[in-house]
Write a structure and sequence with these properties.
233 residues; mainly beta; Immunoglobulin-like; Jelly Rolls
């Protein structure tokens, strides 16, 4: 299995080029052992047509799609909230969850129907709780989080209760770096250690490396560009 992770590097700024899945077909994997934080900006983007959005009758701004696969059967409660949570400055978020399914992509084509809605909330609050009852091993659930007020904010979510657990093996390995950097610094690229994995890095100026965590000393402006790693497990 190959997992392609794109790392973008700029002098003075290093960032991962991940974007939140704004289409159901591009949903991001979610693992209940992690605390997720992502940023959402004000935009004209709204949730795609087709799915039955249940209680979300309007205000489907800045859609962020996620999916999870059950590893341990049981209930799961997911708590999500926008940051900051303040009486006069909080951002109203909403959500809907569908399932169960046998995979995370096929349901996006006509299977997100009313009978598949597991939980949904259209409250005016910055904090929401999604409850998935009686999840079974191998089942997939799809979660959509929306930004009703269409304001820039960070949103965090994680499992907060329940005996069920999701499969963290569907989450891609993490990549990171030692940025931000200045001219003359050493660029250090990091990839999560995976048992038996091989690493193939590539980047500007014909850069290649099979190290898990390669370095490039004495960087200059010509080192700016995209760095990629293919991790084969």
């Amino acid at each position: 299995m190959k997992k392609l992770i794109l790392l973008a590097f700029f002098i003075g700024l290093i960032k991962l080029s991940f974007g939140q899945g704004d289409l159901c077909q591009n949903s991001d994997p979610f693992c209940t052992s992690e605390n997720y934080i992502f940023h959402t900006d004000s935009s004209d983007l709204v949730a795609q047509p087709g799915p039955d959005y249940g209680c979300l009758s309007y205000g489907l701004h800045s859609p962020s799609w996620f999916h999870m696969r059950m590893k341990v059967s049981g209930d799961i409660e997911i708590t999500m909230f926008s940051i900051p949570i303040a009486p006069n400055d909080s951002v109203d978020i909403d959500f809907i969850c569908w399932g169960p399914f046998t995979d995370p992509v096929m349901p996006c084509e006509g299977q997100l129907t009313s009978d598949k809605i597991v939980d949904c909330s259209f409250s005016r609050w910055a904090l929401e709780k999604c409850y998935i009852p009686n999840g079974l091993v191998g089942e997939y659930y799809i979660l959509l989080i929306t930004n009703f007020r269409n304001k820039s904010c960070d949103i965090t979510f994680q499992k907060t209760s329940g005996t069920g657990e999701t499969d963290c093996s569907i989450v891609p390995p993490q990549v990171s770096n030692n940025g931000p950097l200045c001219v003359g610094d050493t660029l250090e690229l990091y990839a999560t250690s995976e048992p038996g994995a091989t690493y193939e890095w590539s980047g500007p100026l014909g850069f290649t490396s099979t190290d898990q965590n390669p370095i490039i000393p004495d960087v200059t402006l010509v080192h700016a560009g995209d760095y990629q790693v293919v991790i084969t497990v």
